[in-house]
Amino acid sequence: MGNKQTIFTDEQLDAYQVRRRLHSRYHELAPHLVPMDYTNEPDCKLPLALIVDMPELKENPFRNRIVESFSEDGMGNLSFNEFVDMFSVLSEMAPRELKAIYAFKIYDFNVDNYLCKEDLEKTLNRLTKEELTPEEVELVCEKTIEEADLDGDNKLSYADFENMISRAPDFLSTFHIRI
Amino acid sequence: MQLYLSLNAFKDAHICVFICIYILIVSHECKPYGITLSTKIQPMLFAEEARRRSRNRRSKSQRKAKQVSEDEDEEEDEEEEEDEPPRRRGRRKTTKTDEDETPQRRGRGKRTKPQDSDEDDEGDKQRAARKGSKASKKKAAKETSDEESEEERVSRKKAGRAVSKKEKEEQNKEQKGNVKGKDGENKDKKKKKKMSSSSSSSSSSDSDEESLSEGEIAALKEQVEEKKKLIATLRNKPWRMKKRLSLLKEAQDFVEKFEGALGKGKGRRLYAFKVMMTKVLMGLPYGSIPRKTVPRDEEDTAMDFSVLFDFGVMIFALSLNTEFLTCSCGIARVTEITEERGYCKYSILFYGYYNNDRTIGVLQYRLPLSYLLTSVGVFGYSLLVVIRTMARNANEGGDGGDEGEFIFSWKMFTSWDYLIGNPETADNKYASITTSFKESIVDEQENQKDENIHLRRFLRVFANFLILCSLGGSGYLIYFVVKRSQEFAKMDPKTLTWFENNEVEFVMSLLGLVCPPLFETIAELEDYHPRIALKWQLGRIFALFLGNLYTFLFALFDEVTAKLETEKSIKNATEWALHQYYANYSSFYNTTDVPPPKVAPADVIRGPCWETGVGREFVKLIVSDVQVTYLTILVGDFARAFIVRFLNYCWCWDLEAGFPSYGEFDISGNVLGLVFNQGMIWMGAFYAPGLVGMNVLRLLTSMYYQSWAVMACNVPHERVFKASRSNNFYMGLLLLVLFLSLLPVVYSMMTLAPSFDCGPFSGQEKMYDVVIETIDQDLPAFIGNIFIYASNPGLIMPAILLMILAIYYLNTVSKAYQQANTDLKKKMQMAREDEKNRRNNKDSTNQVMKDLEDLMPDKSLAPPPAEEEKPPEVVIDKSVKPTKTKPGTAGKGVNVQKEVSLAAPNPRRPVTHAPGPRGGPPGNTRSPQPQPGKGRGQGAAPRR
C-alpha cells in the first residue's frame, strides 16, 4: 500500500513495483500457502474466504461477488494472476468499458448473463441491509428494469446495462479501489 | 495656610465625597442594595466633578499669591484623582509610610498631636467637620448662584444632601469597624493603640478640611493595616476559638472591601476594572453627554452591573424561575423587566447613545454619516448575498434536469462507493442509500396514485378555504386585540390586570403556537408530496407571521407618532428655557459670550427619543423570542422525550409507539423561525445596533442547543424527503422578508424626523440630510454638481427605462435559452426512443415490420448499399420530369401522388432513420440508367 498512489493499466501490469506490492499483499493473506518466490509461476490458489477478509473488501456488500466474478472457476478461488486482474480492473486507470463488463458480472448473481429481477433484489437488499419492505423492493426492481430495459424482455442484458452505466455520472468515481 | 485651606473648602469637600462614594461602591459590591446605591451615585459623580472643575479654575487665580510649592503638587494630585483613583491612592499609600515616620514633615495635618480620645470622639468630630464643610459649601453656592439656573441648584442641593447622608452612613460603618477592631486591639499591644490614636487624631483634626480627607484615607489605610496585622497575629492570641473565628472573618471582610479602594492587594485590579467599566458604559469614551447617562428619576430602578454583562441571560434565568411554575407569568415578568430596563436604554446598544458630532477622534471619523451608510449598506449587502445564493442554487437545480432517465438504476448500480473500508462509514453509507431509495419510492408513489382526481381537487380547495378562514380569523383577532390595547393604553396602567397589559403579546404567541399544527392537520387533507406540502405549510405560516409582524409594526408607528408629538412640546420647552437662560446671562453679565448652562447630564430634560423606543421594542421581541424558542424545545421536546422514554416502563400502553411518541423535528418551524429572526434583525439593527451582536450570540447558542435537542429528543420525519432540494424556496422567503423589513426602515429614514436631542442625526430635518451635508461640505464642488445632475428626474427616468429594457431583454434571452434547452432534451429523448425502436426491430419482435423491412434493402444495417441504390429513384424523377420544363413543386406533387398510387403496398414505411442521403442525387444525376422496379419501391422515401 504505502502512500504512493498505484496507477497501472491492464497492459502495463508488469510494472515491477506494483506487481511486487500486490504480491506481498497476496502473500500476506496466506503466508503458508503462497511461496515468496514466484519466478516459476507455481500453481496455487487462495480461497474466497481469505481474500474477502482484505480490508479493502471487508466492508463491501458485494465482496463475494467481486471475488467470484474474477475467479476462473467461479467459486472464488483466485490465483495470483486473477488477483492482479481484480485490482487492475478496479484501479483508477481502467477504461470505462472494462469496468462496465466486470460490474455487470458482479451484479449478475446467478451468472446467466442477464440481470434479472432476482439479481436486482439481491443487489438492493445488500445495498440497504434489507431495510426496505418487500413491496418497496418489488417497486424499485420494476422501476429499474423499466428504466434500463431497452429490448423489453424484462431483464437487463449487457447492452442495456452498458447503455445505462455509460451515462451514470458517478460510476467511474465509485467503482474503484485503491490498494 | 489657613486661608488656602478655606479657599479650597469646596474642592476638598468634593474630594471627600468622592472618596466616600468609592469606598461605598467597593464596600457594597457584593450586596444587592449596594449595587443600586452605587448606580445612584454614579451620575452624581459627574455633576460633582463638573462643579469642582469650574471652582478650581476660579480659586486657582486667587490662590496664586499664597501658593506653596506643595500645594501645586496637591492640586495636581486632586486633578488626577477622578481619572485614576486607584493609582492615586496607591501613591498616597507609599507616601504615607514616610509620613508615619516623619509625620510633621509635610506640615499638613496635626498628626503628631497625641490624642488618646476614643474612636467615638473621632466620629463626632468628623461629623462636626463635615457640617462645617457643608456650611461653607452652601456659602459658596450662594456666591456662584448667578451662573446656575434654579433647577440645577435644587438638584445640586439634593445631590449634596444625598451625599452627606451617604457619608454619614459610611461613617457609621467605619465606626463600627473601628469599634470592633478595637475590641481586640485594646487587649493587645500598646503600639497598635498608638497607631490607631494617631490615625484618629489625624482624621479628627478640627477645622482642617484638607487633613480631613487625607486623614480619612489614612485612617482607612491604617485600619486595613490593623486588620491585616490582626489576621497575621490571630493565632497567638489567647482567645476562645469562637471569638477568633468571628474576628478573623470580620477582619478579612474588611480588608477585602477596603484594600481595593486603597489601590493595593488583589482587590485592586478588580476595583480598577469596575471603575473603568462604569465609566465606559456610562458614556465617557467621547465626552459625557446627557443621552448616555440615566436620568435622575430613573436612577432608582436603573441598573446593576450584572445586567450589562448578561443582558439576556440574567433575564432568562430570572424568568426561568418563575416560568417553571407558571409559564405565562414569566412572560409578564420579562416584559416588565425589559420595560424597566433602565440602564441598557442608555447604553451603547441603542440608537440614542450615539453622538451627533460630525466627526470624532483623531481620524475624523464621521459617525452620523457612517451610521446611515452602514445601515443602508447592510441592506444592500444582504440583498446581494441572498440573490447570489439563489442564483447559484438555480444553476445547481438546472444540472439535475436529465436525471429523470435512470433514477433507480443509477441508485442501484453506482451508489455504493467501493473505496469505503471503514465500518462506520459503511454504516452511514447504508443508511444514506436506504434514505435515498425511500425518497425515490415516495416520489414514485406520488406519481403513481391519481385515482380520484375530482375528490382530491375538492379536498384541496376545501383545505385552502379552511386555512384562509383561520388566517383571516387570526388576523381579525390581532386587529381586535391591538385596538383594545390602544384603548387600554389610554387608561391608567395601574388599574389594568396583568392579562390586559400583555394581551397583544399573549395572543400573538398563542396564535404562533396553535396555528401551525392546525395548518398541518388541515394540510393532510390535501395529500401532497411531503416536499410540496412543506412548501405550502411554510407559505401559510409565513402569511400568519407576516400578519402578526405588520400589525405589530403599525402599532409601533402609532406609538412613534405619539412620541413625536410629545417630543415637539419638549423641544419647545427646552428651547424656551435655553433662550431664557441666555437672555438672563447676557443681561446680567453684559456679555454676549455665554457659556452653555451647566446641568448635570442626569438632570437634563430630554425627549422620548422614539428611535431608542423602537429599538427597545425589537430587543424585547428578540429576547422573548429566544425565551419562547428555548422553552418550547425544553418542554415540548426534551420533557416529552424524557417522559416517553422513562415512563414507558410503567405505563398502560406503549408510549414510544403510541400516542405521545417522540417529537418530530419541525423543519418548517425552525426554518421560518430563522427567517423571521433575520427579518427582525434587519429591521431592528438601525435602531439598536447592539442587536446584531446579541443575535450572533443567540444564533451560536441556539445552534448547539438545537442540535443537541435534535440528536437527543427528536425522531426523523416519518416520510423521508430531502428538504435541501427546496433551498431556493427558503431563500425566496428570506428575500421577501428582507424586502418587507426594508420597507419600514427606509420609510422612517426618509420621512420621519429624527429626535432632536438624541442619536447621530439629532438636529437634522431628515436622516439623509447627513449625506447631503457631507457632499456639500467635504467633497469638491464638482462632485456635488455630479450628484445634482444625477438626481435630476430627467436622468433618472431614462435610467429606469433603460433598466426595464435590460430586464426585458435578459428575460427574453433566458426564455430563449430555456426553449433551446427543452428542445435539446426532447431531441435526446427522441434519440433514445429511436435507439430502443431500432433494437426492437433488429431483434425482430415485430413481425410486420420485419416483413416490411425484408421488402427493401437493408438500410439500417448497411448504409453504403443504400447510397448506391439511390441514384435510380432520382433518375426516375428525372425521367418523368423532363416532360416538364422545370421540376416545380406542383409537378413534383403530382408525380408523388402518382408514385404513391403506384407504390400502394408500402405506404407506411417505418420511420426508423433520417430521410436518407440527400447529398447523393447531385453526384449521380448524370448516370441515366432507369431502374423502375426498384425505384418504385422506394419512390416515396427520399421525398419524405
From TrEMBL, chain A:
Organism per entry: Fundulus heteroclitus (Killifish)
Compartments (UniProt record): Cell membrane, Sarcolemma; Cell projection, Cilium, Photoreceptor outer segment; Cell projection, Stereocilium; Cytoplasm
Primary site of residence: membrane
Any one cellular-component term (Gene Ontology): stereocilium
GO terms assigned for molecular function: calcium ion binding; magnesium ion binding
InterPro entries: CIBP (IPR051433), EF-hand-dom_pair (IPR011992), EF_Hand_1_Ca_BS (IPR018247), EF_hand_dom (IPR002048)
Matching Pfam families: EF-hand_7 (PF13499)
The protein's name in its UniProt record: Calcium and integrin-binding family member 2
Domain EF-hand: 95-130, 136-171
Matches recorded under PANTHER family: CALCIUM AND INTEGRIN BINDING FAMILY MEMBER 2 (PTHR45791), CALCIUM AND INTEGRIN-BINDING FAMILY MEMBER 2 (PTHR45791:SF5)
Key words of the record: Calcium, Cell membrane, Cell projection, Cytoplasm, Magnesium, Membrane, Metal-binding, Repeat
Source organism, top-level taxon: Eukaryota
One of the GO BP terms on file: calcium ion homeostasis
TrEMBL record, chain B:
Compositionally biased tracts (Acidic residues): 70-84
Keywords linked to the UniProt accession: Membrane, Transmembrane, Transmembrane helix
Residues of the TMC domain: 609-724
Annotated region (Disordered), positions in chain: 51-214, 828-944
UniProt biased composition (Basic and acidic residues): 164-188, 828-842, 867-880
Main location: membrane
InterPro entries: TMC, TMC_dom
Record bears the keyword ATP-binding: no
Comp. bias intervals (Basic residues): 52-66, 128-140
Protein name per the record: Transmembrane channel-like protein
Source species: Fundulus heteroclitus
